Amino acid sequence: MTESGFTVDVDQNQYLPAGGRDVSAIVTVTSAADAGVSGTGPGGTRDGSAEIIIIDCSGSMEYPHTKIAEARAATAAAVDVVRDGVRFAVIAGTNQAWPVFPADGSMALADASSRAAARQAVAGLRASGGTAIGQWLGLARQIFEAYPAKLRHAILLTDGQNQHESPEQLAAAIRECEGVFSCDCRGVGTDWEVSELRTISTALLGTVDIVPDPSGLAADFAAMMENAMGKQVADVALRVWTPQHATIKFVKQVAPTVDDLTGRRTQSGPQSGDYPTGAWGPGESRDYHVGVEVTSAGVGQEMLAAKVTLVADSPAGAKVLGQGLVRAVWTDDEALSTKINPRIAHYTGQAELAAVIQDGLEARKQGDEETATAKLGRAVALAHQSGNEDTAKLLAKVVDVIDVETGTVRLKKQVEDADEMALDTRSTKTVRAKK
Amino acid sequence: MTADLAALEGTCPSCGEPVSTGDSFCESCGTELSPPVASTVPPGYTAECPVCSVDPAVPSGAISAEGYCESCGRKVPSGRDHCELDLGLLAGVTDRGLRHSRNEDAMALATTGTPAGPVAIAVVCDGVSTSPRPDDASLAAAQVATRTLLTSARRGDDPAEASCTAVRSAHQALSRLSSPGQAPSATYVSAVIGSDAVTVCWLGDSRAYWLAAGSGAARLTTDDSMAEEMIAQGTLAEADAMASPQAHVITRWLGADLPEPRPHVVRFVPPGPGVVLVCSDGLWNYQPEAAGLAGLALPAALTDPLGTATSLVKFALDAGGIDNVTVVLAPFPLAPFRPPLVSPASLPPGGPAT
What we know:
By secondary structure, chain A is α+β, with helices and mostly antiparallel strands. Chain A contains eleven helices and 20 strands. In chain A, the strands form four sheets. In chain A, strands 4, 5, 6, 7, 8, 9 and 10 form a seven-stranded mixed β-sheet that branches. A six-stranded mixed β-sheet of chain A has the order 2-18-17-11-15-14, with no helix packed on it. A five-stranded antiparallel β-sheet of chain A has the order 1-3-16-12-13, with helices on one face.
């Protein structure tokens, strides 16, 4: 481990054949397990962190009645794990949004009495009205922006689709929240739209999942909040330098989930761009797949195809946490240039797995059974080959597997909505490639 | 002119006082008069991007700490890509070759005068590409070993013992370069050429040859390689063993991942005049036979070691240049030792600079 508490490792086959232009590497970023990283303020307070819980209080949360009851219990459970000294708030959303605690739209400093007051306020929540998630995000942003906290995180719970505002309004609200706070999204029941919540969680560098049974909410909320409390370094980005005349083809997170960051680039220098990775806690490790197209050089020549620097925002400008080099060496030794890097192959397969599941489910929804069968069949084979057992189990609830090796499947006639949505939301979960 | 004055060949490059042939150090200021030389980055060398520096449209970019052009990303020549060393008694050339992105070979040379006559020292190391920092490993090993051999030769130590001591000092140098899980490694071959014998010491597959006219040429080393082991065990004939994919897998080397180096030492007494060749596999890949190498090098190498080393390197490059190539040649018997002094004629007017 370096002084910063982070390491950046590059795994690649640097050898290209004569005329070769495509360079690809797996960049592994790991934070130290011992919390040597900054984040806790003087005197043990954690005024660097802020949390907002956003609960759907639309009318449908009353059907069944247990939904709103479990949402209240889950929010209380999450409030219970907010650590002393953290700023926090709870807001409710329908076709508009309003602060539940503190009722004046400020943020409370967590301690035993503020947590008790929050629980009491949440207990009074009733469900009625519509769903306009953009409004909810907008209020959360306003509240967050009134405080200087570096680590801002929200939990968003909904049970329905975004019906009371246009997709454009939601997209605009999401854009305004990018870089302001991160957001984990949870859908309860089966009436919400996976792609809608995935758009929010991806843009806001959070997770998305289904909680099919409302009784599972409390444990899930507490776990999400625990995870958020562990974050210590905010606004970490991958700064990717590339040589002149080179093109970045993609920058993807590939473990623990597939998350395409390519479009999230912000230019940080004449030849470099930053890709956000969000906040980091101790002992975290994530893999990124970086693809660059360079101009080809002669056999025997070497080029730096990319320099990947891990940077964190700091008052003194970007602080370098670690660095890795992606190289290109041209050779006419075919044994070298044709060697496939096993980790790149693995993650290419995992990214394809996520894509074919989403495509297959979409085709199934459109009634295109042939495409759905082919795509989900391919998914079964990929999940099997890569040892992604969790995804294989989810797939088996949607298709009957005839031959796992070839990916021969038959669509099930009867599929529980919850199973289909679970497969969709968890399609991006990957299995870690061994080094 | 007295005999004493006849021995005055020049002046100390440091203090300007007269010094005599055979002195290792200036008697006035203690400056080492014939220090060892190595294929390091030449002093004053400025790295320049090979692409951007010749393109007027591109502003000359900075060079990163890792040696890449910060504009086009091209690996910038380190200054070690091609190096020629000439100490008179012996000379060497090392080159990156045509297929490798850097020169991981290194050489170091030294000469000295002793009461028993002149001594020439050559060490060639080939960094193990699969180890970290192989270029640093080879240079550190060659430099440290040559320094040890030179000190021993000036003391008049037994060359065989000195050779083993030099390997140990090189091994320690590599230990200092290493960190947990990171063991920079290199092959090693040294030749200590005295007035009557050549002492060769090695680990790995860099080689020494005796080049002489007629049937006198001989290889002085036996590779520590899978190929050589297969030949020794009688598993494979030489041609088949050399063609096998494991031919170049070495079985001994110098590196901190190995506890105690166990070098081979051979003392060779040349039967007559000839040339000692010390080289890396970048040369012998293309001509492993002693007689063949003698045919390429002789008779020019007897009188022009530097020019012949250059042409042997060119031979390897023309044959494909698939690896880094290093060639050191020392004509035997050695010429009288003359340290490279500053001759009075070459001094600037008004005396030496201080």
